[in-house]
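hiii, so i know i said id send this last week but things got crazy w the move. better late than never?? heres the sequnce for the chain we talked about at the cafe, plus the structure i predicted for it. fair warning i was half asleep when i ran it
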Amino acid sequence: MQAIYGYDREPFECEKDGKRACIFQEGDDVLKELDVEHANFYIDFIALCSFFVVLRAACYLVLRWRVKMH
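okay and structure toks below
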């Protein structure tokens, strides 16, 4: 969410036809509504990369163990 709506994104285009109000014209408004305006992008990225490495290592070890069993 931070990567899409954060980092001083320019305002969204909004049609003002009188029937609908532009509630989420700013990206920061979206982040506030979803309660992620203070989230740290780099921590999420590090966690995602860590899961990737751990799961790859676990799969490798399980496959290696299965091959040695037969």
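btw DSSP finds three helices and no strands in the chain. thought thatd interest u
miss u guys!!
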